[in-house]
Amino acid sequence: MKNIKLKTASWSPDRASTVVTRFLARPSIDPSAEAVARPILEEIRAEGLKAVLRYARKFDSPELQAKGVKLSAEDIQVARREVDRDFLRQAKEADKRIFAFARAGKPKKWEMQTTRGGRLGEQFVPLDRVGVYIPGGTAPLASTSLMTATIARAAGVKEIVASTPADKQGKINPYVVTALDMAGATEIYRLGGVQAIGAMAYGMKGLPKVQKIVGPGNAYVAAAKKLVYGEVSLDSVAGPSEIAIFADDSANPAHVAADLLAQAEHGTGLEKALLVTPCQELIEAVGPELMRQAAGLSRYERLVPILKSGVLAVQVSNLEEGMELINQFAAEHLELLVRKPRMWAGRVRAAGAIFLGHWTPESAGDFAAGPSHVLPTGGAAAMFSGLTVDDFMRRSSVIQLTKQDLEEVMPVIEAFGRVEGLDGHVNSARVRFGDL
């Protein structure tokens, strides 16, 4: 760690920085991962369970048998007995907070009146069957079980299919299993990687296909999700974790360093952690603090490549210019460690989740606050939003016109029917007035 220094750069809207430009360029899909995922998915589509088992044995559990792919009720109870009571208490608290937030944001049926006595509106119905993917590689993400399945439960989804990789002995981490059961998963499968996405998207013997797949994963999972889009709906394509911190001289260097490391420790080697500030003194203090704290973390060996290339401190002339860079980065997680965080939050145009003020570390959002931590990465926050209860629901527009409403819009129907050459459309309205 002594030989690693915090990488720094300066930036302004009218002065390009090669270092910053390269840091911002982070595609969420690795083309090489897509090339690997495509033939696996094609085999799963063609062969079903046979292909799924072949790849599950190759990548995860060599002895996995068809009858063991789905966890039994007894398997779930065994896992629950392995979990300590304190975790159970805290997981129930997290589940309660996540469920409450999801229910508060659940869309409601609404209507408006037309000018001639009709009604227009929207209604919302939960999906019937969804799939949630829970990573299990570098860390057992029990929290992701709640951040996906609990929200589906709040939406009213009846069938919640969970898939997560097992170890070489065919065992799933008991904390993940317990959290999934608590969250409302109705089926849990010992499947990870591309084969899990293929099984849920195309279906196989013993596992009917789902309507939507949500949840994060490694580069191969992200590539597989992209490739099955259309067979199923998706939340977004999520890649390696990332954070941006927007700070002024009120920020505590130790807090900044700790928050940067919290995302860097995920351990894929591709994480991104960005500090943007006009304060040179803050940058100078954060560098040594990063190295000091990293040396004491249990996953410090995984942090080394990130500290070398995935962490960047950028000095800007003022906070206004800094916010422009923040919006260009479009971070998965954005912390506003400034004196007036609510004011600056109003200027954020692109971020998966925004954490306001010095008492709101990103880790609170990962585990406890309520909103889902399943968020867009790789700049996708410029186009996509994080997982919410809306993602588990179908929206239908509802239209009811009176005779007078239809009379009023007849000229509109006739004009567009004429221009588009769709006289059948026009006739379907005219016939109601006896004009045919």
Brief characterization of the structure:
The protein is α/β, with parallel strands linked by helices. The chain is 44% helix and 17% strand.
Distance between the termini: 84 Å
Strand order of the largest sheet: 1-11-10-9-12-13
Say what the CATH topology of the largest domain is.
Answer: Rossmann fold
Q: Count the strands?
A: 14
Backbone shape: globular
Unreliable parts: none
Number of helices: 17
Helix content: 40-55%
Task: Using the CA coordinates, give the radius of gyration.
Answer: 25 Å
Strand content: 15-25%
Q: Averaging pLDDT over every residue, what do you get?
A: 93
CATH superfamily of the largest domain: Nitrogenase molybdenum iron protein domain
CATH class of the largest domain: Alpha Beta
User: Structural class of the helices, strands and pairings?
Assistant: alpha/beta
Domain unit count: 3
Reported for the largest beta sheet, the result is:
6 strands, parallel
Q: What is the architecture of the largest domain at the second tier of CATH?
A: 3-Layer(aba) Sandwich
